[in-house]
Automatic annotation (TrEMBL):
Gene3D superfamilies: Immunoglobulins. This is Limbic system associated membrane protein. GO terms for cellular component: plasma membrane; side of membrane. Pfam families: I-set, Ig_3. PROSITE patterns: IG_LIKE. Residues 22-121, 126-208, 213-300 form the Ig-like domain. Keywords: Cell adhesion, Cell membrane, Disulfide bond, Glycoprotein, GPI-anchor, Immunoglobulin domain, Lipoprotein, Membrane, Repeat, Signal. One of its GO terms (biological process) is cell adhesion. The gene is LSAMP. The keyword Transport does not apply. It comes from Cyanistes caeruleus. It is a lipid-anchor; GPI-anchor.
Length: 332
């Protein structure tokens, strides 16, 4: 770092009188110009002289950048911009936030010294720095999602639930709180950080809501003896439910002409060759780690006039439901 005496000596050798440069004085009649530049772009700070004999310099809070044609700064991004003999502008390439601040163009003419100040404002596009990881919670829990972003000006953060309605949450900003979350509130949540500098930065977090099974469809059927028959049971649940089938209090296995096929949220009981013993009431049980539910279905003879499409069966013994849940959870 050069001392003031060393700087003065160098300036005298280069024909520049530092004492004649009012470095810290300001021409208050002109005021300070503001220049706004986006991070990474090039900033040009304009300054003009009255005649070619003027002595000029560019300075900032750190010291002298240029004295006349001589560059004092070690920053390779900084150059003079001289499109005509009377222009003495400063060009800063790949501007960053540490370049922000006040710059002074000091001009000493034959008549009087004057200065022009320019304040460089550096804007930064929004960038999400932190967002919650994907989470899984039980229905009824309280959920807090976090999204933090950097940028200049400070980005505005908004949340949106990515559903067909695309509900936006107003005024939530960095933290989105969902009290008593429901299964309808599961899915992806989008965090958007925006300012006027550039396109918004967008990231997503997935919220999975666990809930106990609910039978959504249980279809009874009719079939003549000697024919095939199919009983269908569907349940909504997260995690995906496991299924069991019962005839009265006896659990059904895939054997003796009966076959159970369960895929995802649906379970099918198939009878390859219906006999008189197959007619009657069946129970479909769906369970996951949060609960168990059941529905009654019927296989009946043609022409009996039965049109029941299945109904929830609350008459199933509690011990049977408990045993079913225990068996399903232990994968017996």
């Amino acid at each position: 770092m050069l001392s003031r005496c060393q700087m003065r000596s160098m300036c005298v050798q280069r024909g520049l009188d530092l004492e004649g440069l009012p470095v810290r004085s300001v021409d208050f009649t002109r005021g300070t110009d503001n220049i706004t530049v986006r991070q990474g772009d090039t900033a040009i700070l304009r300054c003009y002289v009255e005649d070619r004999s003027s002595k000029v310099a560019w300075l900032n809070r750190s010291g002298i950048i240029f004295a006349g044609e001589d560059k004092w700064s070690l920053d390779p991004r900084v150059e003079l911009e001289k499109r005509n003999p009377l222009e003495y502008s400063l060009r800063i390439q790949k501007v960053d936030v540490y370049d922000e601040g006040s710059y002074t163009c000091s001009v000493q003419t034959q008549h009087h010294p004057k200065t022009a100040q320019v304040y460089l404002i550096v804007q930064v596009p929004p960038k999400i720095s932190t967002i919650s990881s994907d989470i899984t919670v039980n229905e009824g829990s309280n959920v807090t999602l976090v999204c933090m972003a950097n940028g200049r000006p400070e980005p505005v953060i908004t949340w949106r639930h990515l559903t067909p309605t695309g509900r936006e949450f107003e005024g939530e900003e960095e933290y989105l709180e969902i009290l008593g979350i429901t299964r309808e509130q599961s899915g992806k949540y989008e965090c958007k950080a925006a300012n006027e500098v550039a396109s918004a930065d967008v990231k997503q977090v997935r919220v999975t809501v666990n809930y106990p099974p609910t039978i959504t469809e249980s279809k009874s059927n009719e079939a003549a003896t000697g024919r095939q028959a199919l009983l269908r049971c569907e349940a909504s649940a997260v995690p995906t439910p496991d299924f069991e089938w019962y005839r009265d209090d006896t659990r059904i296995n895939s054997a003796n002409g009966l076959e159970i096929k369960s895929t995802g949220s649906q379970s099918l009981l198939m009878v390859a060759n219906v006999t008189e013993e197959h007619y009657g009431n069946y129970t479909c049980v769906a369970a996951n780690k949060l609960g168990v539910t059941n529905a009654s279905l019927y296989l009946y003879r043609p022409g009996t006039g039965r049109v029941d499409n299945g109904s929830m069966s609350l008459a199933v013994p509690l011990w049977l439901l408990a045993a079913s849940l225990l068996c399903l959870l232990s994968k017996c």
